[in-house]
Design goal:
Elements: H1 2-23, H2 26-36, H3 43-58, H4 62-75, H5 80-95, H6 99-112, H7 119-139, H8 157-171, H9 178-191, H10 195-208, H11 215-228, H12 238-253, H13 256-259, H14 262-290, H15 294-307, H16 312-324, H17 336-341, H18 344-347
Helix pairs in contact: 3-4, 3-5, 4-5, 5-6, 6-7, 7-8, 8-9, 9-10, 10-11, 11-12, 12-14, 14-15, 14-16, 15-16
Length: 349
């Protein structure tokens, strides 16, 4: 009986919490406050303001149009009228060259109405805004806060451009600008020397948009991004191997007449990668050579000769093998005498 009463009480408590949560959610508080100050839902006012906004918009008075569309969207929420008003509000900001406000409003519309009928109209606007910010940032990075130019974000124009490009790709992944947006993100990262991010997005272009006009560029620039992500023999080899594989894929996928002069550059790059791999192998031997583990060093020297006989490092490895042929396999143990006199129990500690 006690258990049944406890379950009943718990169920009542849960119901009370759920209802309380609805009452005190952010949206409910906002709606309640608006109603309290006389700004609650009012369909007639919203429609009248929308019509006024359309009139101002036709007259190209975008500032007044924006004010009207804002009221229309605010006074009749969760409706087709709000969707229309948000779109026209964003359009008013766009044609008034207030691109940050336009971008934010398009984002609000896409978030609240994911399947909006304005999607095919919004993505070209978003792409245009992102491209403008991206190109302007290449001329002037504008690292300090922007307080004068209404066409640019307050800070980080490039980062905002990438975010808007990503919105185009996310909300309209099969649309005509999805590959343009993805390629633009990759190029933006490449120009800013963020080569790992660039390589990732070039790969997205290759995988997600195999019929795109950017596929060849995504291969070539992807190779360059991978190579510039490689920091030298002391670091991870994966970017080097990925670049080598991507070169093979590019040479196989695109005929010589399509690649043109790029074909010779790709073959030359493969040779450079091979030289870099030979250097890595040889330097592994050099590491053991310096600490006098000559047997381990000779192993890597022999691997260098076997795998990379056509490189200068093979000759260097041969010289090292000749030099160390009479050297002991491991360094002399100067404390061997101590081990002999220590008790067996101490040796195992």
């Amino acid at each position: 009986i006690k258990n049944e009463n406890l379950e009943a009480a718990t169920g009542q408590q849960k119901t009370w919490l759920e209802s309380t949560g609805e009452k005190f959610s952010a949206g409910s508080i906002s709606r309640g406050f608006k109603k309290f100050i006389g700004r609650g839902p009012n369909e007639l006012l919203a429609r009248r303001k929308f019509e006024e906004g359309e009139s101002y918009f036709e007259q190209k008075n975008y500032k007044e149009a924006a004010k009207c569309f804002y009221v229309a969207s605010d006074r009749w929420p969760d409706s087709t009228l709000e969707e229309d008003a948000l779109y026209m509000l964003a359009e008013s900001y766009f044609f008034d060259d207030r691109y940050p406000k336009a971008s934010d409003t398009y984002a609000v519309l896409l978030k609240k109405y994911e399947n909006t009928r304005y999607l095919t109209d919004i993505t070209p606007r978003q792409f245009a805004i992102a491209r403008y910010w991206d190109l302007k940032a290449r001329i002037d990075s504008h690292w300090y806060p922007n307080v004068k130019d209404k066409t640019r974000p307050w800070v980080d124009a490039t980062g905002n451009a990438i975010a808007v490009y990503s919105s185009v790709r996310t909300h309209d992944p099969t649309g005509p600008l999805a590959d343009d947006a993805t390629m633009s993100i990759a190029n933006s990262y490449f120009i800013r020397n963020h080569f790992e991010d660039a390589a990732f997005h070039y790969e997205l272009v290759r995988k997600d948009f195999p019929n795109s006009d950017f596929v060849l560029q995504a291969h070539v620039l992807g190779i360059r991004s991978k190579l510039r992500s490689y920091y030298g023999p002391q670091y991870e080899i994966k970017p080097l191997e990925d670049a080598d594989k991507l070169i093979d894929t590019t040479l196989t996928q695109f005929p010589g007449e399509v690649l043109g002069d790029e074909r010779d550059r790709l073959f030359a790059t493969k040779q450079l990668i091979r030289q870099e791999k030979a250097q890595r192998e040889f330097q592994s031997g050099e590491y053991y050579y310096k600490i006098k583990y000559y047997q381990a060093a000779r192993y890597y020297y022999l691997e260098t000769i076997r795998e990379f006989a056509d490189t200068p490092f093979a000759k260097m490895a041969e010289d090292r093998i000749e030099e160390t042929k009479n050297y002991p396999p491991v360094p002399y143990d100067y404390f061997g005498w101590l081990k002999k006199i220590l008790p067996e129990s101490d040796k195992n500690r």
